[in-house]
Design goal:
The protein is an alpha+beta fold and about 375 residues long. The chain has helices spanning about 15-30, 35-40, 45-55, 75-85, 90-110, 115-125, 240-275, 290-315, 320-345, 355-365, 375-385; strands spanning about 130-135, 150-155, 155-165, 175-180, 190-195, 200-205, 220-230, 235, 280, 280-285. The chain has a 4-stranded mixed beta sheet, with helices on one face. The protein has a 4-stranded antiparallel beta sheet with strand order 2-3-7-6, with helices on one face. The termini are far apart.
Length: about 375
């Protein structure tokens, strides 16, 4: 199973990495492509699909086998995200990636042995779907401005506040919630809590409608004296800010890889289109401006992929890559939007019609320069380190 483009490998790809890619391509071809349009209409990915991914060992690339994971490395994570991006359904991709690489990672990296034994097997099996709740209406990238509070009471904490734009917010079973445990105001005294669906005082306030990512459920969450027992504190009290920031390193690698996968698939679809679509007595591919622009975009995407996978390799080897992951997020988030603009343009009126992959992909890509760290913020992160 090969694509005409985007199959370049790297010296550190192993046979195991290639087997993972083949497994994902078969799964996407058999299970995602035939059903994705229905998920877009329903507004979420069905639980049985996530369970099936769990049964194939796809919901815990970097988690050890004792928890049902594959015990692989950051490179495998990047391959995983890139192939999800190739699916053409961004909502499906982010539903999975939030669960595997943005939410459950808090439990794995900061949870106690008891907490991991309690929840990790269900997470890797697709029985427990997770979400991470840190963003608020007035506090996105600026974590110190969050207003949700956690007040110590007998046996636990009471959470009060709300969270906005939470992916998997409607259908998740376990939410990793960030709340202030110190004095109000701008400070980093944040603690992470595991809040289970059905907890008293916790409600899904409303389901949100989005510009893209239609098959990903997104919600506003409300906490009204929501009791969370001491046993559900994730990590050290007051150290949640650093856990959130640390997790962004992995998150930005997978978001960059997802963007690359989306870009490569859009270019592939557009190449097929322009080579068979005729105008003025010749195919669109015969127009120099079109073939040169697509060639330019492909060169840019391959360069971005090289940065993504080299950074993944360095991370797998324990190197500090904060600057590089910020570069990945800024570069790939903007590039995928440029690619989608050109690909939709070259599809002409067909590309503007609902139901065509390139129209959906263009909508889905827009958030890639926003979520996980806006491009402008990423450039500030880079500037601090040069």
């Amino acid at each position: 199973m090969t694509d005409p483009i985007g199959n370049n490998t790297f010296p550190y790809f192993t046979e195991e990495h290639e087997m993972l890619r083949d497994t994902l391509r078969r799964f996407i071809a058999d299970k995602v492509i035939p059903n994705g349009d229905g998920w877009e209409k329903d507004g979420f990915v069905p639980r049985d699909i996530l369970r099936e991914m769990g049964s194939l060992g796809l919901l815990g690339m970097r988690y050890p086998p004792e928890f049902g994971g594959a015990g692989l490395d950051t490179i495998a994570n990047a391959i995983f995200a890139e192939e999800l991006g190739r699916s053409t359904y961004g909502g499906f991709a982010v539903t999975v990636l939030v669960h595997t690489d943005m939410a459950s990672t808090h439990l794995f990296h900061s949870g106690t042995d008891e907490q991991k034994q309690r929840w990790m097997p269900g997470i890797t099996a697709g029985e427990l779907i997770t979400a991470v709740a840190m963003t608020e209406a007035g506090a996105g990238s600026d974590l110190a401005s969050m207003r949700t509070t956690a007040t110590k009471v007998a046996g636990g904490y009471q959470l009060n506040g709300s969270k906005m734009f939470i992916t998997n917010g409607v259908h998740a079973d376990l939410y990793f919630v960030a709340a202030k445990t110190g004095e109000p105001g701008r400070n980093r005294n944040i603690t992470m809590f595991a809040v289970e669906k059905g907890a008293q005082g916790f409600t899904v306030a409303r389901e949100l409608e989005k510009h893209g990512w239609w098959s990903s459920d997104t919600a506003e969450l409300a906490f009204d004296d929501c009791f969370v027992p001491d046993g559900n504190v994730i990590g050290q009290e007051g150290r949640g800010f650093y856990a959130l920031v640390g997790n962004l390193q992995n998150e930005r690698i997978v978001l960059g890889a997802q963007s690359c996968g989306e870009s490569l698939k859009a270019i592939e679809l557009t190449l097929e289109w322009v080579k068979q679509r005729e105008a003025f007595g010749a195919s669109l591919w015969e127009k120099q401006a079109i073939r040169q622009r697509l060639s330019e975009r492909l060169a840019q995407v391959e360069a971005a992929r090289a940065l993504v996978f080299n950074t993944a390799w360095r991370d797998a080897n324990g190197e500090e890559v904060v600057k590089e992951v910020s570069m990945i997020k800024a570069l790939c988030g903007d590039l995928v939007n440029k690619v989608m603009y050109d690909c939709l343009q070259f599809h002409g009126g067909t590309g503007y019609m609902r139901g065509t992959p390139v129209e959906r992909m263009a909508r889905d890509a827009r958030v890639q320069s926003i979520g996980g760290g806006a491009t402008e913020l990423m450039f500030e992160e880079i500037a601090k380190r040069i």
